[in-house]
Amino acid sequence: VFLLSFVQRRARPQPFEHRFPYLRGRFGIVVPLDFICSLSNRWSYGFAFGAIAPSVIQLFSESYTPFTVPNWAKVIVYVVGAIEVGVAYLPFFACLSTPNRILGGVLGLLYTLMWLIVRLYDTISCPSGRILGHHEKLIILWPFFLCLFFLLVRFVYIIVKAVRIHLQLQPDESEEDLQFHQFRYVQTLLKRPPERPEEKSWFRRKVYDWDPHFKFPNRMIGTSIISLIGLYTMTLADYSLSDYTFDKLDALKNSLAEIASSCNETNNVFTSLIPRMNEFSFVARRSWLATTIFSTLTSVTYTFHVLVCYRKHLKRLWRGQKTFLPEKFHKPSPAVSVAAITRYSGWQIAFTLWGFLIVHFVQFLFALLFVYGVVLPIQKGHFLSWLSTNIMLTILLVIALVVVQIILVQIFFLQDKLSPDDKEKPLALNNRKAFHCFNYFFFFYNVVMGLSNCILRLLSSCIVGTWLVSRIDRTIMQRGYESMDPGYGTWIGMIFADHYHSNPVMVSFCHLLLGRTLDKQGPAVSSYATFSNKTGCSVGGRIRVRWLLLYTLLRNPALIMLRKRKKLAQNDNQDPLILARAVTSQAQQAAELDNNKTAETEPTQSDI
């Protein structure tokens, strides 16, 4: 890092540096990773995050503390541990982000090789563990080794590419090439939509529809990779600990069986307890395994679904749509939005891991209830007696009566359809007197049924809230109380910060504006890149610019109100709103005339 800081030059040298000409502007700030706008080396940064995943997961435990600390000092220990992890893995990111590609590639290659040798030596010399057996470290750390091997190959590629660029064997990759997808996105906005929509495959229609004009930032890719590796580690630990716990339960059961066999009495407590323990051990072990698989798949699906929601929400903000957000979040505080970028990655990883444990435990409880309430009575042949005495029959009857009320209203108390093509009857009462009698007698029953529905509402809210606890992109609070969900507030602030810093229309406009300014000033060196016009068409002349302006205003009359106008004279009573309406009506009339001419020129069947 010291060498990278030495070759990094600062834009503004200090006055005292004039005494040392060679050190003037040296020792710049080394930025390990741009969490906002950077789109280069996205997968390299992702695998670098994967390399630090074991250390990040270790921060959740206190095994890295060399001594015990009081409870009030644990926060300080966590901060020190986080700084230690950041310093230990800083060279990975610094070598990937430095503009000096040769030095960064060489240092990154050596540092990655050092980490790989140390970890391999530790794994080979002490591979076993208390939970997973002889190959515990290899089973847990193989994603870590995979990420290190990828970084080794990546640093070698960076060195070879930098040497080829230095020898002028290949052109350098500019920032313009990295952000060219944004320029293409703006081009699609300026084009007319196709008459026929694009035919998509089944995978794009049902599973995932990729967008060539959108790229996920480094922050989202790194967060997803750490979450997936963390889920893998947590699943292994969860299954191993559960297997160890159930083995202890079986040992306890065997001990009780020995005690029962040693007793002379036939009707002792242990004899009646052993069959129930055997049954519980069998059911619990199978239920835990099934819910482990299901909760893992759920968490992995959530990890990818968060990426899909990120793209969907960001593209809605690009279009100016904010209706999918609560009204109080339409204008978040700038400080909150910028701070949300800092918090998001850590919170998303923690929410994913803790959400996996919470969802797994809740699913395990429901699995036990289902097995003991439904499966075992059916196996033992007591299903009818269970159904007559179980609360499930009551719940089914309550639901059936609610459905009966809706069916009766649909048949007898709604007027007929206004048109045969209507899907439903209109919201207009029929047989009013009969409806009032129906409403009167069901009033007393609905009071009693409201109690059960209240409990059902509470249970549904708890289940859905627990199920979505790892979904940071969706609030688990009721409408009006979204601000009490800090995770959702972090998500909103993060997407707004990305919206303001990576909006393709704004970025393209700024690049074009800076490019025009630099062209007027001369061939000055600048860190800003401009999008080159690949189509080859040039925009020249004031007449063409004015014509394009007129065409834009005709197509978008609402922009007339947003234009900067000169001060009107006192005798000038023209209202810009009236002008906008006039232009809109003229545009509509022109479109209608165009459509009529097109219809007249089209040959009819008689002409053919």
TrEMBL record:
The chain crosses the membrane at residues 43-60, 72-90, 102-121, 141-160, 220-241, 288-310, 353-379, 391-414, 434-452. GO terms for biological process: vitamin A import into cell. InterPro entries: STRA6-like. GO terms for molecular function: retinol transmembrane transporter activity; signaling receptor activity. It holds the Pfam family RBP_receptor. It is a multi-pass membrane protein. Residues 589-608 are annotated as: Disordered. Keywords: Cell membrane, Membrane, Receptor, Transmembrane, Transmembrane helix, Transport. It comes from the Eukaryota. One of its GO terms (cellular component) is plasma membrane. The keyword Cell membrane applies. It is found in: Cell membrane. This is STRA6-like. It comes from Cyprinus carpio (Common carp). The gene is LOC109108964.
